[in-house]
C-alpha cells in the first residue's frame, strides 16, 4: 500500500458526464419507488408471541483443487540459456550482529565476509529478530468453525450485475511488509531495513511470511480466493544487486516453493519485481541519503542511480527465467511515483520497464501479461463548474500518472504538466517512444482515495503554472491545493486515518478517466481500508469491521457500474491486504482482512473478508 497523500479539452465532455456535479434540490430525500403507499393509518392488533426468526448458516468454500496446469513460457531449464553463461549460484547464511567468529574468505568479493559487510554497513537500527519460526511451517487445514459467515449487514448492495467471466479477484501483499526473516537465508539489506533511521517500528519480523507462507496461503485458499499477488525481494535473489554477481540459491528455491504451493492450492500467482525494497548498493557509501526528501515522491528509491536500469533488468531476467512458466501476471514496479526522486528516476523506470517487457515478450516468449502498479489519489475538481478547478484536477492527475502512462500506453511524450514542473526532464526521442510505447498489457492502479483540488490561489488557473515554474513554491510538485472536503465543506468519504477519507463515490469516475485516457483494460491492483484506530480495539471489535465491509462492497459496486453502465473494461481487483502488516513506519495502520497477533503469529479472519468474498461469489466470480 502507498502513503495516502496524494488532457485536453477533447475529453472534457465525457469527463464532465462522469463527474460529481452539484445540483440544487429542496426538501428531504425523495423515494420514487414508494409512489402509491402514502397511507398513514396503520391497523394494530394482538397475536400470541413466538420466536419465528430464522437465519441461514453458510460456510466459505475453498478454491477447488487444480485440474490442469497451464504454462506461460518454456520450462525454467530451457529459459536459463537466455542468461549469461557465467552466472553463478551460491548460498550465504544468517547475519548475527553479536557473532564473535569472523568469516575468513576476505579475498572473495562475494563471499561470507563481503556479505556480512553489507549488513555491517547497513547497521540496521536496533536490529533484532524475535521470531517464532526459523524453518518453513507445514500448513494445517482451516477448521470449518473458522469459516462460518458472519450475519449480513442490514444495508447492502441490491444490484443485479455479475462480474465478467475471468474477472481476477485476489489478495495482495509485498515482501518487506510481511516476510520477516530479514537477514536470513542470504538476504542482504534493502532500503526497507534502514527506513527510516528513527525509532519507528521496523520490518525485521512482520508476519513471518517467509516461513509461515504455506499457512497464510492455505487460509486464503480456504476462503475461496483465487489470485495471490506478492512481491519478490531483489535482495533475496541477488544479495550484491548488480549484474555479474552471484544468485542466491536459497532465494530462488524459496519463491519456487511458494509459487508451487500457490498452484497446488488451485490459486494463481501474481508477481511484482520491485515493491519499494531497493537494494542498498544504489545509495553508495552514505546511507543517510536514503532519507533525503525527493523532489517528486515521498522516499528516495534510488531509481535515478546511473547503475540502476541495467541492474534492474538483469534482476528481472533472472527472476523471470526461473518463474515465468508458472506466473501469468507480472508487475515490474510498484507505485514508482512515490519512490521517484526526480525526473531522471522516472526516465529510468519507464525505460527499464520497457526493456523487461520486450525481453519477456520477444526473447523469453512469455504468454502472460505485464504492467506496473500505479498510485494516484484521484483529483476531483472542487467545483466541477469552475474551469480553473477542472484545470487543476487535470493538471494534478496528469502529473502523477502521465509521466509513466503516456509513454507506456500511448507511445506519447511526457505531459506538459510534467515538463513544466521538472524542466530538467530527460527528453524522449521518437525511437525511445516507439520502444516504450505499448509495453503495458493493462493498467494496474491502486485507487485508495480521491482528493478535492483547486488552484493554489482559488479560482486563479495561472497560479498553477506560476507554482510549477517556482522551484521553492510550497505547493510543489503538484501545484494544487488539496482538501478532503467538497465545495460546501463536507468530508467526501469514510474516515480512515485521521487525515484521509476513503471515497467510493469517485471510483467510478476514476475508472472512466483511466480507461478513456490510456485506452487499455484496468486492473485494481490494490484497494483497502484502515479502519480508524483499529489497532487500539479489542480483538473481537477488530474482527467485526463493518466500516471495511462497507468500503469493499461500495467500491466493488462502483466497479460493476463502471463495467456495465459505462463500458469500462475492469479486469481485476486485489484486496490490500490479506493480513494486517507493516505499513512502513507502523504496525497500527490495519489494512488487513485478517488480523495478525505479532506475539503468537495467530491469524483471524475479519468480517469484511467474508463479506467481500460473498459479494464477489454472489456475482459469479470464481
Ligand atoms: C545481540 O545481543 C543483544 C544483547 O544481548 C541482544 O539484546 C540482541 O537481541 C542480540 N541481537 C540479535 C540479533 O540476536
Ligand atoms: C532503539 O531502541 C531504543 C529502546 O527501545 C529506543 O529508545 C531508540 O529510539 C531506538 N532507536 C532506533 C534508531 O530505532
Ligand atoms: C550508484 O550505485 C552504485 C552501485 O551500483 C554505487 O557504487 C554508487 O555510489 C551509487 N551512486 C550514488 C550517487 O549513490
Ligand atoms: C551524507 O548524506 C547526507 C544527506 O544527503 C549529508 O547531509 C551528509 O553530509 C553526507 N555525509 C557525507 C560523509 O558525505
Ligand atoms: C515562489 O514561492 C515562494 C514560496 O511560496 C514565494 O515566497 C515566492 O514569492 C515565489 N516566487 C515567485 C517568483 O512567485
Ligand atoms: C485550499 O482551498 C480551500 C478551498 O478554497 C481553502 O479553504 C483553503 O484555505 C486553501 N488552503 C490553503 C493552504 O491555501
Ligand atoms: C496476542 O496474543 C497474546 C498471547 O495470547 C495475548 O496476550 C494478546 O492480548 C494478543 N494481542 C492481541 C492484540 O489480541
TrEMBL record:
Keywords: Signal. The keyword Signal applies. GO terms for molecular function: beta-glucosidase activity. Residues 1-18 form the signal peptide. It holds the Pfam family Glyco_hydro_1. The keyword Signal applies. GO terms for biological process: carbohydrate metabolic process. InterPro entries: GH, Glyco_hydro_1. This is Beta-glucosidase 42. It comes from Tolypocladium ophioglossoides (strain CBS 100239).
